[in-house]
Amino acid sequence: MGSSEVALPAASNRWRIAAAALAVVVLAVYPLVAPNAYLLYVAVFALMYMALATSWNIMGGLTGYISLGHSAFFGLGAYITGLAVTRGSLPHLPMAVVAGLVVGVLAIGIGYVALRVRGASFVIVTIALVYMFNLLAQGWRSLTGGSTGLRVPVIGDLSRMQVHTLFFYMFALMLVLVMATWWFIDRSKLGMGLKAIREDEDKAQALGVPTNAYKITAFAISAGFTALGGGLYAAWFNALDPVFVFSIIIGANMVLMSLLGGVRHLLGPVLGAVIVVPATEYFLVQLGETQIHLVATGLLLAFVVLVMPDGIIPAIAALRRRRDPPASSIRESAAGAATPQEVTP
Amino acid sequence: MTFFATTGLRRTFGGVVAVDDASVELREGRINGLIGPNGSGKTTFFNLVTGMIAPDAGEVVFRDRSIAGHAPHRIARSGIGRTFQVTRVFPRMTALQNLLVAVRRVGLSELLRSAVRGPEVARAEQWLERVGLEHLRNAEARSLSYGQQKLLELAGAMMGDPKLVLLDEPAGGINPVMIERISALVKELNAEDRTFLVVEHNMDMVMSTCDHVIVFDRGRPIATGTPAQVQADARVLEAYLGV
User: The pTM is what?
Assistant: First the structure.
């Protein structure tokens, strides 16, 4: 019996390599050719959300456990980094990494409790998590600065444009790292177990999958990366507002972006962020700095759920399949033999 | 050595006693049938043995070790595989991926092992070939017919390399050709040193495939023996026909 990986057509592989090369070139060059600081800022914001949504998708996409509370991990990462820099005079970037690791470990304990429930109950538990940390950040004034927030010093002696450029590359690096992690998990035995949990958790257990351990592992990795994103945000943005960093909106955005692109695909959350971030910025510019732009986000979410419940990438794939010639049959042969037959269109 | 035995197994749901003081012993190497009227506690018995639900009382021993109350994944890895009454496959995973879910060992290296190439994939392909589904390797399980899903589920259970296999109505809802195919497979696998406990309402299949039959009624065994002995047992006729 031969090896067992599904071989992609050579043409498809060539397209993928060309697209990846183009993406690398765009990422490398964009900060150098960005016409102004605002457009560079939007690009950094988009990259941040691409990385965050892909981090979320390690848990949400692979296991089907929808966490609306990932902003708790984002905020924790931001505050741990911000406090280490402001109170401990420690370096920004290493502290963002430390924050990711600390929150990853913390998420093992949180996951142990939160993942005892499934479905809507899990969603509610994660929302409660955000409010808990929000209250903590606002209430512990002596440490966090309370509702006035925390000012984080600018990294080095850089200009605003240089800071945007630096963090453009930092978030790009994080995106590559988190995508590589998702890809690796997706192809591993762990990933197979996580996907089985998404499909039928009890059945997965009956096949020997230690579902709790698998879910907690995915939750911790996902939370750790989200906190790393929060840490980078603190070092980049320099101002932490507890109402923003611990808001449901950040978590909901990660979910929306992943759903829009397609949660079962590596590029789904990336595509979602590419659409949602510029769209949000556009609505902000058009409608002003009010919360009304959130209505547009809500409408987009409703559109996705109604028209493309599996996201854009699966919808395109389905359209392509409809155009392709029929594949071999999946019907049983009458004699019980495994003979492929043609499908009736 | 005790291969498999339950003692005083009991489970109630509210006021309903689903399994009541059930003591069952299975000898290694047999194909055992578990029959009884609807609601007699057969599936609950399966769920208790495999840890899907916890018993209120009683003991389950498998290969000299107590497994009562253990988590389902631990019981599965100890060597008990099962299928479900209403076939359960992972619908949006391919046939091959369905087989690759089974976990035989735990540990970090096992978690990080590739699921797209290597010996485990080759093993899964061998099982697909054995149940006649190799041509559907990359088809999503939801697109398979019900009979094919039954075969896929059986192959998935075998990926865990179980010594005792619990089949819950393997002939339910499928055509006679497929029933014969599943019967033949069970006999083949039994010849390879695997013990079976088969819940089934299709008496032709039970009588032609099983070499030992246990009859359940009201949550407990009322008769055991060869198919011929059980068929002639007055208690069994009473349980089924009320005569």
Answer: 0.89
